[in-house]
Design a protein that fits this description.
The protein has eleven helices and no strands. It has about 220 residues and is mainly α. The protein is elongated and about 60 Å long.
């Protein structure tokens, strides 16, 4: 007696359903818990075994990259739109508002925006593109005189970090609370409101070290 195997097309449909279920579960769990969430919990939420997860996503960063693909595209799209806006101040405010919107209620994207992942090529490529565009956004706003001249592109990273914690703390209480604190931050960036800053900005290598240190602490 021979055992009939399921048709190849049926196997492919099952695999596609499993992958979609894993991505949906990971999107929800990473948003709730951050990128260091237990992979076993993601598989359980999808109703699948951990082995099935690893067949589709051999490493954590493979899963992260797949889950965050849409938000990475939105991040870059916002920067590309902002860098050509007139006046340049509107481009700066649009970019920061859009990044904060992407962060709101999503601890996983907060981690993407705050950390470095040296072995995740897709994430690092998106980050580099966003950083390069962010530097141009800053330079354009300074050239038109609307942004205080002592701001560096590296300072934008710390604005994003700060608002990731605001979103984390307030989202369940008031999902729009971050808008108030971003508006306060933007007022402090205006050239007309500038007072001398007590210390210089961190150099790019120092920012990299800080991001790598945060990533090691969260994902070890």
């Amino acid at each position: 007696m021979t055992t009939r195997k399921p048709p190849i097309g049926s196997l492919r449909r099952d695999a596609q359903r499993n992958r979609a279920a894993l991505l949906d579960a990971a999107r929800a769990v990473f948003a709730e818990e951050g990128l260091d969430a237990a992979l076993e919990g993601i598989a359980r939420r999808a109703g699948l075994a951990i082995g099935t997860l690893y067949r589709h996503f051999p490493t954590r960063m493979d899963l992260v990259g797949a889950v965050m693909a849409e938000k990475k595209r939105a991040w870059i799209k916002a920067a590309e739109a902002a860098v050509v806006m007139e006046p340049a101040w509107d481009g700066l405010t649009f970019f920061l508002e859009r990044v904060c919107e992407l962060q709101a209620g999503d601890l996983g994207f907060n981690d993407i925006a705050s950390m470095r992942f040296p072995y995740a090529a897709g994430i690092e490529a998106a980050r580099k593109r966003a950083y390069d565009l962010g530097r141009r956004i800053v330079e354009r706003a300074q050239a038109e005189g609307s942004l205080r001249p002592d701001i560096a592109a590296e300072d934008v990273a710390f604005i994003v970090w700060a608002h990731s914690r605001v979103s984390e703390a307030t989202y369940a209480v008031d999902p729009q609370a971050w808008r108030r604190y971003l508006a306060l931050t933007l007022d402090g960036l205006r050239a007309t409101a500038a007072n001398p800053l007590p210390v210089p900005p961190l150099r790019p290598r120092q920012v990299l070290r800080a991001q790598l240190r945060l990533g090691r602490r969260r994902l070890r």
